Amino acid sequence: MNDFIPPAKPIIGEDEIDAVTRVMRSGMVAQGPEVAAFEREFAAHFVDGRPTVAVNSGTAGLHLGLLAVGVGPGDEVIVPSFTFAATGNSVALTGATPVFADIEPATFTLDPASVEAAITPRTKGIMPVHLYGHPGRMTELGEIAKRHGIAIYEDAAQAHGAKLDGRSVGTFGEFAMFSLYPTKNMTSGEGGMVTVSTEEFARRVRLFRNQGMEKQYENEVVGFNARMTDIHAAIGRVQLTKVDAWTATRQANAAFLDAHLSGVVVPPVMPGAEHVYHQYTIRVPEGRDAFVTALREEHQIGSGVYYPIPNHRLPSLASYAPGLDLPETERAAREVVSLPVHPSLSQGDLERIVEAVNALAKAGS
Q1: Nearest residue to 341 via CA among 208, 250, 255
Q2: Nearest CA-CA partner of 360 in 234, 263, 219
Q3: Taking 90 as the threshold, does the pLDDT of residue 363 lie above it?
Q4: Quick one: which of 84, 113, 87 has its CA closest to 99?
Q5: Smallest Cα–Cα separation from 79: which of 135, 155, 1?
């Protein structure tokens, strides 16, 4: 029997282990010099040196970023429903209202026309998600934001290194969040990065992550404990030296799948976009769930369905969207399957994936 091919596989090597050991032996394991160095290096690598603040999770990054730019009760922020719940949750946690808009079918990202239709006098900003590693339609969304005098915030949790027309995601909005969860394109074990447009916003994120204080016992705002540890930052610093090579491998793996899969809808890339393939997401228009089961049980190939229940239908968020109809979101939730694309795949693994997917598609799973 063939070995199981997992849908994702975090890569933690001896370099990361050595970095953790070095920090542990230093005796300074809480937020300290490793975090500060990781912030500088991440900023230089991904967002053209924008002010960057490390936090203990991607969700915390979204929440604190929104608070730092002044989102709160009475405000609305337009978000996609086809995403992980943290996007809508972070808006709700500020006391503001998440307003769900539909996606466009090709890129799974916010549809500008749906966004424009959702704008009200209470709209404070638009928060696109660069889903699966593909940048959102930032040119159109930026024009809408400018026309209505509202802000752009970016959920770049899955999009480390993605670009649009040569411009890095994370540089389009007042703030952006990158996740560092273990299955992301790079990890710190757990954590997030908030990149912001001004030093003042960065200072506010730092206040909110550290109990509301910049100087000990001089609390300026009501804050949280959302600090990253030096242990996690040390892992992230090592991963930062490897992520470009991993991304190139993901892109090569995706190109192979693009060229050889048949009977399914492979993920298109819009002109000017650089996709970093956090996920390689196909559409299976009929029989998706049977397809996923057969892929696992008959061919020992893992896959993921991200996301089977749109946010506007989750019990936790449905009250914000009574009676809302988002047809492209619903269709994507029925059809998407994410195939393995991670850098640990061998050529043999890729060929097995192609053979299995093509056979199931031809048989109608």
Answers
A1: 250
A2: 263
A3: no
A4: 87
A5: 155
Helix (H, G, I), strand (E, B) or coil at 164: strand
For 105-149, the DSSP string reads TTTSSB-HHHHHHH--TTEEEE--B-GGG----HHHHHHHHHHHT
CA gyration radius for the chain? 20
User: Is residue 263 within 8 Å of residue 287, measured between CB atoms?
Assistant: no
Domains observed in the chain: 14-240 (3.40.640.10), 243-363 (3.90.1150.10)
| Token pair in block for residue 207 | 């206040």
pTM: 0.96
Q: Which residue has the tokens 């969040």?
A: 177
DSSP H or E run through 79:
strand 76-80
Residue with tokens 């719940």: 85
Under 8 Å between Cβ of 152 and 129:
no
Two structure tokens written together for 107 = 């890129």
pLDDT in tens, 129-145: 999 999 999 999 999 99
